Amino acid sequence: MATVSEQQHRFSTQPVIFMQNHQSLADVLHELMRTQRSYMLEVIKFGQPTTPTMTLAEWSSSDAFILLTQRYSDYLYRNHPEAVREAKPVQSLWAQWYFGLLLPPLMLALLLEPRALDCSVEHIRVAFHENGYPCTFWIDVQEDEDAHYLNAQQRIDRLIQQHLIPVVNGIAQHGDINARLIWNNMGFSFSWFLGELKTQLEEHVVLQLEQALFFTSRLLDGSDNPLYRTMLPRNGQMVRRSCCQRYRIPDVEQCGNCTLNPT
Protein backbone atom coordinates (compact mmCIF):
# COMPACT_ATOMS: atom_id res chain seq x y z
CA MET A 1 0.00 0.00 0.00
CA ALA A 2 1.39 3.41 -0.94
CA THR A 3 2.60 5.60 1.88
CA VAL A 4 0.69 8.70 2.79
CA SER A 5 3.43 10.94 1.40
CA GLU A 6 3.02 9.30 -1.99
CA GLN A 7 -0.73 9.77 -2.07
CA GLN A 8 -1.98 12.75 -4.02
CA HIS A 9 -4.73 14.65 -2.26
CA ARG A 10 -7.94 14.21 -4.14
CA PHE A 11 -8.74 17.93 -4.01
CA SER A 12 -5.44 19.07 -5.55
CA THR A 13 -6.77 18.96 -9.10
CA GLN A 14 -9.70 21.30 -8.40
CA PRO A 15 -9.66 24.58 -10.37
CA VAL A 16 -8.34 27.59 -8.46
CA ILE A 17 -11.72 29.32 -8.62
CA PHE A 18 -13.28 26.31 -6.87
CA MET A 19 -10.66 26.34 -4.15
CA GLN A 20 -11.35 30.02 -3.46
CA ASN A 21 -14.98 29.60 -2.50
CA HIS A 22 -15.84 32.67 -0.43
CA GLN A 23 -18.94 31.22 1.19
CA SER A 24 -18.57 30.62 4.88
CA LEU A 25 -17.72 27.05 5.73
CA ALA A 26 -20.86 26.86 7.89
CA ASP A 27 -23.03 27.81 4.90
CA VAL A 28 -21.25 25.34 2.63
CA LEU A 29 -21.66 22.47 5.08
CA HIS A 30 -25.30 23.33 5.71
CA GLU A 31 -25.94 23.23 1.97
CA LEU A 32 -23.96 20.01 1.58
CA MET A 33 -26.08 18.27 4.19
CA ARG A 34 -29.29 19.79 2.86
CA THR A 35 -28.66 18.40 -0.62
CA GLN A 36 -26.94 15.14 0.33
CA ARG A 37 -28.55 14.02 3.62
CA SER A 38 -31.17 16.53 4.72
CA TYR A 39 -32.07 14.47 7.81
CA MET A 40 -28.68 15.37 9.27
CA LEU A 41 -29.81 18.95 9.79
CA GLU A 42 -32.28 17.71 12.38
CA VAL A 43 -29.39 16.86 14.70
CA ILE A 44 -26.50 19.01 13.40
CA LYS A 45 -26.69 22.75 14.00
CA PHE A 46 -24.12 25.32 12.93
CA GLY A 47 -23.37 28.45 14.92
CA GLN A 48 -24.26 29.50 18.44
CA PRO A 49 -26.55 27.20 20.46
CA THR A 50 -30.12 28.34 21.05
CA THR A 51 -30.83 25.53 23.51
CA PRO A 52 -28.91 24.41 26.62
CA THR A 53 -25.79 22.51 25.59
CA MET A 54 -22.74 20.99 27.24
CA THR A 55 -19.09 20.62 26.34
CA LEU A 56 -17.29 17.29 26.63
CA ALA A 57 -15.68 18.43 29.88
CA GLU A 58 -19.11 19.31 31.27
CA TRP A 59 -21.16 16.26 30.29
CA SER A 60 -18.39 13.75 31.00
CA SER A 61 -17.88 14.96 34.56
CA SER A 62 -18.98 12.39 37.10
CA ASP A 63 -22.03 14.27 38.35
CA ALA A 64 -23.36 15.13 34.89
CA PHE A 65 -22.68 11.75 33.30
CA ILE A 66 -24.25 9.81 36.15
CA LEU A 67 -27.35 12.01 35.93
CA LEU A 68 -27.65 11.66 32.14
CA THR A 69 -27.19 7.89 32.09
CA GLN A 70 -29.51 7.47 35.08
CA ARG A 71 -32.23 9.33 33.20
CA TYR A 72 -31.62 7.14 30.18
CA SER A 73 -31.68 4.01 32.31
CA ASP A 74 -34.96 5.13 33.91
CA TYR A 75 -36.40 5.50 30.41
CA LEU A 76 -35.15 2.12 29.14
CA TYR A 77 -36.34 0.21 32.24
CA ARG A 78 -39.57 2.19 32.70
CA ASN A 79 -41.77 -0.84 32.02
CA HIS A 80 -39.63 -3.21 34.07
CA PRO A 81 -39.10 -1.66 37.51
CA GLU A 82 -38.32 -5.08 38.96
CA ALA A 83 -35.46 -5.80 36.55
CA VAL A 84 -31.85 -5.68 37.67
CA ARG A 85 -30.33 -2.76 35.81
CA GLU A 86 -27.06 -3.20 33.97
CA ALA A 87 -24.97 -0.09 33.36
CA LYS A 88 -22.83 -1.58 30.59
CA PRO A 89 -25.54 -2.13 27.95
CA VAL A 90 -27.21 1.17 28.90
CA GLN A 91 -24.00 3.11 28.33
CA SER A 92 -23.28 1.11 25.17
CA LEU A 93 -26.62 2.23 23.75
CA TRP A 94 -26.07 5.78 25.03
CA ALA A 95 -22.73 5.95 23.22
CA GLN A 96 -24.38 4.63 20.05
CA TRP A 97 -26.68 7.65 20.12
CA TYR A 98 -23.68 9.95 20.35
CA PHE A 99 -21.55 8.46 17.60
CA GLY A 100 -24.43 7.25 15.45
CA LEU A 101 -25.78 10.80 15.18
CA LEU A 102 -22.50 12.71 14.96
CA LEU A 103 -20.06 10.50 13.06
CA PRO A 104 -21.82 10.37 9.65
CA PRO A 105 -22.16 14.18 9.36
CA LEU A 106 -18.50 14.65 10.31
CA MET A 107 -17.46 12.04 7.75
CA LEU A 108 -19.60 13.76 5.12
CA ALA A 109 -18.01 17.12 5.91
CA LEU A 110 -14.45 15.81 5.90
CA LEU A 111 -14.70 13.59 2.83
CA LEU A 112 -16.89 15.65 0.48
CA GLU A 113 -15.87 19.24 1.24
CA PRO A 114 -12.38 20.50 0.26
CA ARG A 115 -12.16 22.81 3.26
CA ALA A 116 -11.66 20.82 6.45
CA LEU A 117 -13.94 21.25 9.44
CA ASP A 118 -12.12 21.46 12.76
CA CYS A 119 -13.64 18.58 14.73
CA SER A 120 -11.83 19.25 17.99
CA VAL A 121 -13.98 18.64 21.05
CA GLU A 122 -13.98 22.30 22.06
CA HIS A 123 -15.91 23.20 18.89
CA ILE A 124 -18.77 20.72 19.37
CA ARG A 125 -21.40 21.04 22.07
CA VAL A 126 -24.19 18.57 22.83
CA ALA A 127 -27.85 18.99 23.74
CA PHE A 128 -29.54 16.08 25.51
CA HIS A 129 -33.03 14.66 25.25
CA GLU A 130 -35.21 14.79 28.36
CA ASN A 131 -34.52 11.05 28.65
CA GLY A 132 -30.80 11.65 28.93
CA TYR A 133 -29.33 10.59 25.58
CA PRO A 134 -27.52 12.87 23.09
CA CYS A 135 -29.91 14.32 20.52
CA THR A 136 -28.46 17.48 18.96
CA PHE A 137 -24.96 18.72 18.22
CA TRP A 138 -24.08 22.40 17.91
CA ILE A 139 -20.90 23.03 15.94
CA ASP A 140 -18.86 26.20 16.22
CA VAL A 141 -17.64 26.00 12.63
CA GLN A 142 -13.93 26.63 12.34
CA GLU A 143 -11.77 25.66 9.40
CA ASP A 144 -8.90 23.30 10.19
CA GLU A 145 -6.36 24.95 7.92
CA ASP A 146 -3.70 22.38 8.80
CA ALA A 147 -5.97 19.68 7.33
CA HIS A 148 -6.87 21.52 4.10
CA TYR A 149 -4.48 19.55 1.90
CA LEU A 150 -4.63 16.29 3.80
CA ASN A 151 -6.07 13.26 2.03
CA ALA A 152 -9.09 11.26 3.17
CA GLN A 153 -7.14 8.88 5.40
CA GLN A 154 -5.25 11.69 7.08
CA ARG A 155 -8.45 13.65 7.72
CA ILE A 156 -10.22 10.68 9.31
CA ASP A 157 -7.12 9.91 11.36
CA ARG A 158 -7.24 13.49 12.59
CA LEU A 159 -10.93 13.05 13.50
CA ILE A 160 -10.08 9.95 15.52
CA GLN A 161 -7.29 11.71 17.38
CA GLN A 162 -8.96 15.07 17.98
CA HIS A 163 -12.53 14.07 18.77
CA LEU A 164 -13.33 10.38 18.95
CA ILE A 165 -10.59 9.27 21.35
CA PRO A 166 -11.27 12.06 23.89
CA VAL A 167 -15.02 11.35 23.83
CA VAL A 168 -14.59 7.59 24.23
CA ASN A 169 -12.22 8.20 27.12
CA GLY A 170 -14.74 10.61 28.63
CA ILE A 171 -17.37 7.84 28.64
CA ALA A 172 -15.14 4.94 29.65
CA GLN A 173 -13.45 6.76 32.54
CA HIS A 174 -16.46 6.09 34.78
CA GLY A 175 -15.74 2.36 34.76
CA ASP A 176 -19.06 0.77 33.79
CA ILE A 177 -18.14 0.21 30.13
CA ASN A 178 -14.79 -0.46 28.54
CA ALA A 179 -13.52 1.60 25.63
CA ARG A 180 -13.17 -1.47 23.44
CA LEU A 181 -16.92 -2.05 23.34
CA ILE A 182 -17.54 1.58 22.35
CA TRP A 183 -14.97 1.33 19.55
CA ASN A 184 -16.49 -1.94 18.34
CA ASN A 185 -19.85 -0.22 18.04
CA MET A 186 -18.26 2.75 16.30
CA GLY A 187 -16.51 0.52 13.79
CA PHE A 188 -19.92 -0.50 12.48
CA SER A 189 -20.95 3.16 12.09
CA PHE A 190 -17.80 3.88 10.11
CA SER A 191 -18.29 0.86 7.89
CA TRP A 192 -21.98 1.56 7.29
CA PHE A 193 -21.51 5.18 6.29
CA LEU A 194 -18.53 4.40 4.08
CA GLY A 195 -20.92 2.11 2.23
CA GLU A 196 -23.36 5.00 1.94
CA LEU A 197 -20.63 7.15 0.37
CA LYS A 198 -19.35 4.59 -2.13
CA THR A 199 -21.12 6.25 -5.05
CA GLN A 200 -19.56 9.62 -4.17
CA LEU A 201 -15.99 8.63 -3.38
CA GLU A 202 -13.47 7.08 -5.71
CA GLU A 203 -13.12 3.35 -5.17
CA HIS A 204 -9.48 3.60 -4.15
CA VAL A 205 -10.40 6.14 -1.44
CA VAL A 206 -12.99 3.79 0.07
CA LEU A 207 -10.54 0.88 -0.02
CA GLN A 208 -7.82 3.05 1.52
CA LEU A 209 -10.12 4.07 4.35
CA GLU A 210 -11.29 0.52 5.03
CA GLN A 211 -7.68 -0.65 5.10
CA ALA A 212 -6.62 2.16 7.43
CA LEU A 213 -9.61 1.87 9.77
CA PHE A 214 -10.00 -1.87 10.16
CA PHE A 215 -6.84 -3.63 8.98
CA THR A 216 -4.03 -1.35 10.12
CA SER A 217 -2.99 -1.66 13.75
CA ARG A 218 -1.48 1.82 14.06
CA LEU A 219 -2.67 5.34 13.46
CA LEU A 220 -0.46 7.65 11.42
CA ASP A 221 1.43 8.88 14.50
CA GLY A 222 2.31 5.30 15.45
CA SER A 223 -0.19 4.99 18.31
CA ASP A 224 -2.63 2.09 18.57
CA ASN A 225 -5.58 2.21 16.18
CA PRO A 226 -8.67 1.67 18.40
CA LEU A 227 -10.76 0.64 15.36
CA TYR A 228 -8.37 -2.14 14.32
CA ARG A 229 -10.34 -5.34 13.60
CA THR A 230 -13.60 -3.93 14.93
CA MET A 231 -15.03 -4.97 11.55
CA LEU A 232 -14.06 -8.23 9.88
CA PRO A 233 -14.65 -9.69 6.40
CA ARG A 234 -17.00 -12.66 6.39
CA ASN A 235 -18.77 -14.27 3.43
CA GLY A 236 -17.96 -11.29 1.24
CA GLN A 237 -19.26 -8.72 3.73
CA MET A 238 -17.85 -6.63 6.53
CA VAL A 239 -19.35 -7.67 9.86
CA ARG A 240 -18.96 -6.37 13.39
CA ARG A 241 -16.58 -8.23 15.63
CA SER A 242 -18.60 -8.29 18.83
CA CYS A 243 -22.09 -7.78 20.22
CA CYS A 244 -23.06 -4.32 21.48
CA GLN A 245 -24.95 -5.83 24.47
CA ARG A 246 -28.17 -3.91 23.79
CA TYR A 247 -30.19 -7.15 23.88
CA ARG A 248 -29.61 -7.30 27.65
CA ILE A 249 -32.01 -4.36 28.15
CA PRO A 250 -35.70 -5.32 28.43
CA ASP A 251 -37.75 -4.65 25.29
CA VAL A 252 -34.63 -3.80 23.25
CA GLU A 253 -34.12 -6.32 20.48
CA GLN A 254 -30.87 -7.64 19.08
CA CYS A 255 -29.44 -5.86 16.08
CA GLY A 256 -30.34 -7.53 12.79
CA ASN A 257 -26.66 -8.35 12.26
CA CYS A 258 -25.88 -9.25 15.88
CA THR A 259 -22.85 -11.47 16.27
CA LEU A 260 -24.93 -13.72 18.56
CA ASN A 261 -27.34 -14.61 15.76
CA PRO A 262 -26.78 -18.10 14.31
CA THR A 263 -24.98 -17.99 10.95
Model description:
- With 263 residues, this protein is mainly alpha-helical.
- It is 43% helix and 8% strand.
- The chain is built from eight helices and five strands.
- Strands 1-3-2 form a three-stranded mixed sheet. It has a two-stranded antiparallel sheet with strand order 4-5.
- A hairpin with a 5-residue loop joins strand 2 and strand 3.
- Helix 4 crosses helix 5 and helix 5 runs parallel beside helix 7.
- The chain is globular.
- The N terminus is likely disordered.
User: What is the molecular shape?
Assistant: globular
What is the radius of gyration computed over CA atoms, rounded to a whole number of angstroms? 19 Å
- Beta-strand proportion: 5-15%
Topology as a string of helices (H) and strands (E): HHEHHHEEHHHEE
Beta-strand segment tally: 5
In helices, the fraction of residues equals 40-55%
- Main β-sheet description: 3 strands, mixed
Distance between the termini: 33 Å
**Which class of secondary structure composition applies to the elements?**
mainly alpha
**Largest sheet: spatial strand order:** 1-3-2
**Low-confidence segments:** 1-20
Mean pLDDT: 89
List keywords for this structure.
263 residues; mainly alpha; 3-stranded mixed β-sheet; two-stranded antiparallel sheet; 8 helices; 8% strand; disordered N terminus
Give the topology, please:
Elements: H1 16-19, H2 25-36, E1 44-46, H3 56-59, H4 62-76, H5 87-112, E2 124-128, E3 134-139, H6 152-172, H7 179-196, H8 203-214, E4 231-234, E5 237-240
Parallel strand pairs: 1-3
Antiparallel strand pairs: 2-3, 4-5
Helix pairs in contact: 4-5, 5-6, 5-7, 7-8
